[in-house]
Amino acid sequence: MKKPIIIAALIFTISCSLLAGTLASYTITLDKVASGSVVGKEFIFTADGTDIFQQNVKIAPKDLVVWQFSVRNYDDLLITETDLYYNLAFEVTASTDKQAIEPLIITIKDANGKKIDSVTGTGLINVYNSFLLSPTGQKNDYTVEIYWPSNDEIDINYAGNNFSTAINVSATASQVPFDINNGDDNEDEPRQTDTSVLYEAGAPWIDDENGINKHQFRITITNTSDTTIHNWNISMIYPGQVYQHWQSVLVSSDLNTGSYTFRHPDNYNQSIAPGESITFGGLAVGKGEDPITSVMINGFETTVRYQYGISFN
Q1: Does the residue 235 lie in any domain?
Q2: Which of 139, 174, 209 is the endpoint of a domain?
Q3: Best exposed site among 33, 108, 163, 175 by fewest CB in 10 Å?
C-alpha cells in the first residue's frame, strides 16, 4: 500500500504548485534501489569408468569383450543448473596402419541392458540423451559390447597383427537439444525421438466451491522409432491451468502462455522402449474441449491425437 500513497502525494503536490502559478522542478533520488550480480550457472558434464577402455585387447572368434562407463551432470556437491543435452559418438574404425576386423559386432546398451544401436565391422553410433534440470545429480550408465561371431569359412582371414579395430568415444554436451537431422533437410531418417502422443480429456465438472469448470486429462507417449527413448520429457501449450498431476514431474510452467514441461518420474518409467508407451495424467481448470498444442518430446515435434469426453473410471 505504500507505493500508491507516495504516487498520490506527488501528484497532489505538483497540482497545487501549478495552480498557485509557481514554477517548480521536482527531482527524486533513489539511493540503492537494487543491487546484485550475475553469475554463470554451473554446467557440469563428466564421465566415470573410462579407464576400463583398454588398449590392445586381443579377441578371437566367439569372444565377447565388455566395457562399461557412465556420464553424469554433477561433480561432488556441484550439480548442473540448466537442462543438459548430450551426444555420445562411438566411432568404430580400423586402427592406424591396420585393417578392421570386419566380423566384429559392436553394440551399445543402456543401464537396463537394452540395445540402443550396433554396427558390424566399422561405422558410427550416435547416442542422444539428456539430464533435465533437477536438484539432485543424475547419471546414465552405458555398456559397450564387442562380439566376434564364429564363422569357420572367414575367421582365419582376420587373424594376426595386420587386423585391429579401434573404438573411440567422444562426448558433447549442450544446454539446448541437438539437431540430429545431420543438416540434410531432404533426409527423412527416423530419429531417436520419433513418437506419437494421445491426449485424452474427460467430461468437465463444476467445482462447487468456486463455480469453475475442471477436468481430468491423460497423456500417452508412444515410441514409434526402433531405438529406446531415454529420460523422456514433454513440453506443450495446455488449454487450461494444470493444478495436479501424477506419474510425472513438473519441470516448468508459465500461466501467462500456458506452456508446461513434464518429465519422467525419478525412479520409474524413465525410458520408453521401441513400440512401448508411458502414460501420465492430472487435473486442470477448464472444460478440456481444446487439444494441447506445440507438443514436443525431448525437444522434437511429434504427432498428436485428441479425444474428448473420456471416462476414466
Answers
A1: yes
A2: 174
A3: 33
Classify the C-alpha dihedral 139-298-267-106 as positive or negative: negative
E-strand ranges in 152-255 read 165-174, 195-202, 205-206, 213-223, 229-230, 233-237, 242-246, 249-254
Would strands 139-147 and 165-174 be described as parallel, antiparallel, or unpaired?
unpaired
Query: What CATH number does residue 299 fall under?
Result: 2.60.40.290
Nearby residues of 191 by Cβ (< 8 Å), 6 or more positions away: 180, 181, 225, 300
Q: Are residues 51 and 168 in the same domain?
A: yes
In a domain, 29, yes or no: no
3-state secondary structure of 9: helix
DSSP alpha helices (H): ranges in the chain?
A: 2-19
Give residues with Cβ within 8 angstroms of 124, minimum separation 6. Answer: 89, 90, 91, 92
Considering the domain architecture, whether residues 202 and 170 belong to the same structural domain is answered as no
pLDDT of the residue at 35: 66
Residue closest to 85 by CA, chosen among 219, 12, 177: 177
**CATH code where residue 56 lies:** 2.60.40
3-state secondary structure of 268: coil
Contacts of 97 (CB under 8 A, 6+ apart): none
pLDDT band at 31 (very low <50, low <70, confident <90, very high): low
Task: Show Cβ contacts of residue 66 under 8 Å, excluding neighbours closer than 6 positions.
Answer: 143, 144, 145, 146
The torsion angle over the Cα atoms of residues 190, 83, 230 and 221, rounded to 10 degrees, is -70
The SS3 assignment for 283 reads: strand
Please say whether the beta carbons of 218 and 312 come within 8 A: yes
Q: Grid coordinates representing 194? A: 520419433
Q: Which domain holds residue 121?
A: 46-174
Q: What is the pLDDT of residues 117-155, one digit of tens each?
A: 888 888 888 888 888 888 888 888 888 898 998 888 888
